[in-house]
Amino acid sequence: MKKLLSVLSLALAGFITQAQQLPQVFDAKRSAEAQSTETVRKYLSPVRILWKSTDEKTNILNAEKLLKQGTGQADLSGNDLCILQSNDKGIPGLLLDFGKELHGGLQLVTDQSRGGKPVRVRIRFGESASEAMSNIDTIKGATNDHAMRDMIVSLPWLGKLEIGNTGFRFVRIDLVDYNSQLKLKEARAIFIYRDIPYLGSFKCSDTLLNKIWLTGAYTVHLNMQDYLWDGIKRDRLVWVGDMHPETSTIAAVFGSNPVVPKSLDLARDITPLPGYMNGMVSYSMWWILIQRDWYMHTGDLKYLQQQKNYLIKLLNQYAAQVDANGSEKLDGAGRFLDWPSSENQPAIHAGLQAMLVMTLNAGSELCKILNDPATAQKCDAAVARLKTNVPDANNSKQAAALLGLSGLLPAQKANNILSAGGVHNYSTFFGYYMLLAKAKAGDYQGGIDAIRNFWGPMLDLGATTFWEDFNVDWLPNASRIDELVPNGKKDIHGDYGAYCYKGFRHSLSHGWASGPTPWLTEYVLGVKVMAPGCKVIKIEPHLGDLSFAEGTYPTPLGVVKIKHVKQADGKVKTIVNAPAGVKVIVV
Question: Going by C-beta distance under 8 Å and a sequence separation of 6 or more, which residues neighbour residue 85?
């Protein structure tokens, strides 16, 4: 018996020891399986109440209490409550303005409700005031695509609910049921973003350009979520072509960031060859161009070497897509530059011809770095054949920009097409390449003016981020996005748009529209990376009609500080302060 008790005692002791260790083992296993987030959350109170339902005098009390800074905690004090009451006089609603475009959702903190029962409310998010006031229908394109922005939810008694994951500035809250009452303590935006510093900066004598630079930076910042998206309301996907302006902006503003290689790798891993990324022949070309540009900025050879196997096969695939006449014969996927040019087939051919030259040139550079001279030679030979055939741009500014950048068309001839009609027929995505082509032609003042005249009007209309598309033909009699549309005015959000972005489906925070930010850094501030890892940087400012420009540029070795001041004789005095290891060439 004593021996049996001893055995049982030892067994029990072992079981207890194992039981004590189980939570640690479980937590370690779960921790290894868990995916950590690279974003943070902040809670922001609205800055104004833009609209109340017509019955607000009898059905809405103390709405202004929602503007106070909250704590996120329900309590029993009964103080500072906004009360919404539905009855035979109406069902109340409020429209809240959070002051600027945000990514995230809404936190609602409630007080006691009748009988302790949940209270149903309808929540509508909007990038414009009119979108938040819209219904999902077939009239103006309001949608729940990619992100839920119009929904009915139940709020708890003395509790808190967090809802939504989208891009928005405005939120409308309505009671749903008759004879219902909601005591609302707080309605705060949940702002989800990467908490990273703006290492790059830009300031000049034109405050509009300063605001445009920062708006482009902020637009991309919002789209740096789990992956690098193109839009925070719609197009919450990794679109590789759309990434090129975004990665250029990231390099100029934030420096190296893991969201870029993470997104590039995702596109690679879900696109087995001979397929093309996002189903478009041009988008795998953009992947190669980004790889070249990202390597030049970061100098990360180890990361580049990880791409070698896929990159070499992709380059061989592209090099074979040239016919006997030196013409691109890209097929197997969608032939696409951007939406406004999508019906101009000759322009698409011209643009793809130019893109293939740019891609294979970049690929040749990368192959030499990766010690693959054979593939580099294939790329160079294909480029030589492509240069014997120069398609007509067919009056397309998109095609002209690429033809000029590729060298197929003399830069000045390309710029003549780009300058016709000012910024008419610009687009927010390819506007970046139009600016780059103007710079290649030496038309820096034309680039500065185009930025003012194309991106500036979006800010005049209340934008705090840049849009998926914009057309200066929309401007006459257009309303601002931060007001309810007055009688007789056109709704700039709901009434315009085309292709996949009609009406309220149109994204008002699209990273591909950020081109002015890297352009101003490269051509006005004058920063050009000349060696991998920014170890050699050329500073060549082009102030145009500006009296000064100053700013900073992030490198892997530290931040470069730059200041240019135009002297009385028109010459520019430049001061540069660079970290150790960065060689600066001032032109």
Answer: 58, 59, 60, 61, 92, 175, 180, 181, 182
Q: What is the pTM of this model?
A: 0.94
CB within 8 Å of 369: residues ≥ 6 apart: 295, 301, 304, 532
Average pLDDT for 418-435: 98
Q: Report the mean per-residue pLDDT for the chain.
A: 94
Topology of domain 41-192 in CATH is: Jelly Rolls (2.60.120)
How sure is the predictor about 7, in pLDDT bands with cuts at 50, 70 and 90? very low
Q: Is the peptide bond before 274 cis (omega within 30 degrees of 0)?
A: yes
Q: Which of 254, 214, 217, 221 is nearest to 553 (CA)?
A: 254
pLDDT at residue 186 above 70? yes
- d(C-alpha 254, C-alpha 460), whole Å: 26
| CB 406 within 8 Å of CB 358 | yes
Q: What is the dihedral of CA 445, 255, 278, 385, to 10 degrees?
A: 60
- Structure confidence at residue 332 (pLDDT): 83
Kindly state the average pLDDT of the residues 270-289: 98
* pLDDT tens digits for range 429-471: 999 999 999 999 999 999 999 999 999 999 999 999 999 999 9
Token representation of residue 489:
């005015």
3-class DSSP state of 352:
helix
Burial state string for 104-118 with b = 16 or more CB within 10 A and e = fewer than 16: bbbbbbbbebeeeee
Q: Which two tokens stand for residue 569?
A: 């004789």
Q: Can you tell me which residue has the tokens 């930076």?
A: 217
Residue 537 tokens read as 């940087």
Asked whether the predicted pLDDT for residue 327 surpasses 80, the reply is yes
Q: E strand or H helix at 19, and its extent?
A: helix 2-33
Q: Where are the domains of the chain?
A: 41-192
Q: How far apart are CA 274 and CA 415, in angstroms?
A: 35
Residue in this structure with the two tokens 């209270």, named with its chain if needed: 119
The C-alpha R_g of the chain, in whole angstroms, comes to: 28
pLDDT of residue 584: 97
Cα–Cα dist 10/435, whole Å: 79
HSE-CB of 383 using CA atoms within 13 angstroms: 20
Are 89 and 59 within 8 A, CB to CB?
yes
d(CA 375, CA 313): 9
